[in-house]
Input
Amino acid sequence: MEDEERMACKCRTIWGLISGLASVCFVAILHASTCSTIVLTPDEKIVCAVNQDSGSISLWNRLESRKVHEVAVGVEPRTLAISPDGRTAYVTLQSSQALAIVDLEGALCTATIKLPGQPIGVVLSTNGRRAFVSQFAGDYIDGIYSSGTIAVVDLVRRLVIKKIPVKPFPFALAFDDKRRNLYVTHFFALDGVGFVSVIDTENCELRSEILLSEDDDVSSGSGGVFTAISSIAIHPFTARALVVGVHANVRRGLSQSRYALSHKTTMQAVVRVIDLDKIEEVPLSRIISSFSGQAVAMPSSVAFLPSGKHFIDVYSVSHDFKLIAYNERGIVAERALFELPAGPTGLALTRDGRTAFFNCRWARSIAQVTIADIRRPKLAHEIQVARESWSELRVLGARVFHNSRDTRMTPNRWLACGCCHLDGGHLSDNLVWEFTEKQKPSSPRFVNTKALSITGFSAPPILIQGMYHLVQEEEKFVRSFLGGSGFLEKSESLLPAKLEGKSRELDGLAAFVLELRPRPNPHMDGARPRLEILESARRGQRLFKSPSIGCNRCHQGSRLTISGSLSTSRLFDVGTGIRADVPSLHALWASAPYLHDGRAMTLRDVITTYNLNDRHGRTSHLTPSEVEDLVHFLLAPFDEPTGQ
Output
């Protein structure tokens, strides 16, 4: 009898272990299948969130304490994934260019794996032995540059075992264990088409690509190029996935469609539905979430509730989420609209779907929201998660920049600076917009959105034609196009000649923008071009500095521009029909299309196709190999003396 009892006890113990392991594995799949800025450990006890601006992650034991442990990991942590046993977090570091390994029990970063190409998204295989990482800036594979790559990392040996070439700007990831697929969103559309790549996770090869075509509804304002594709969620039961981004209505303009662009028709938050079996978009299923109920701005994350009947769509610039009934008829079946703290970038759901946690970047907090009643979400807790590394004024500027709720910025929450200047202002939308003279009197009709990451050390002046000398002068654009009342205490019809010091919000905008810096260049290895292009770039540098070509007459010094270095402004017409300020040449690898109206898709086009009369440097005599050398230098500009 005693032997039977011992055997029964042993069986119960083994069953308990198996049941517990099964539960852990199920929850791990639930929480780690999609990359996110915030995740739960498998036991749902610890909330883990990245703090992108303080170089850390926060660990919050939500069941036992309001105390948060902050763990330093590196520069610009973006997303994280938790091992199936709940002991380790893997964190992508975009500017440190590494994958950090964090011991969750010890709250300590124990190692990093070098990973070039600005890693952003990370998901783990079901057994936790491999990580798949999106390299946003691409990488070199066998000596050849791929503008987008997925790194496969062996977490046992802690090394990269393969790099899979994909289209540019891979961003969000979703791991589909059932189909053995990895789905990769590409942040920017290419030639008007959005993309999701499908990776075979067994063979680690590109299986196919899902094309997300431009919506041609220009007149109503709901159509446009599908871009800024920031998140993907797989349906828990059916062969469907949601991808979220915006429709950028770049075809709208008086010369293109007879309809003038407006703050209401510039871009809309959109959900698109993908058939995972057919590997294509589901027809007539597009949900324009800005066009029902309250307008929202810039989707940042999406997730299904466990039932699959509803999903949560999160918006980082209007600071809220919509809870929407899932359908494939293009209906915004909105069940709730809930305001969140500033800058929600990601969410994590408990297994029962009754509680959601949001990483709110600009509020520097985690928001815990109860959604037991889907029509009446409630904020249960908001907890601060990081020591502040920025000045108070800079944080204020970031919040102003990314706040479409503020009627001083825009009415009815349609737009804010962060809708075109994306990812914390580091990226432009890579699009060309048509404005009327009244809407943007300081610029030409067609405007190629400028990345702000080089403004800090290359300005003033600011804008294509150098019309602004202070960031605060954007007050004019806020009033003219965005339709806001403006940030001056007195809403004078005539703005004061000096705007600096007139508004704390405008001064905050300046502090935020002028602190932005370019992220690592995938063509550089430290201060020099990568070995794969080093000799070519050296030859290109000699051409660049040659008096017979003349590039460095205007692009000189550490900033690679004479802009701001002269006592009087000097503008040049390089064959585009307008006199323009001289831009810095830093970060050219990431700023296509080129020229003020985006007519040149590549640097080669700038040098050849659109420089027929040698008005943009004398390049017509260059051989194809010399053009390639010059392009390599422009992609990886460096200061090595030409005699070396």
In short: The two ends are 88 Å apart (CA to CA).
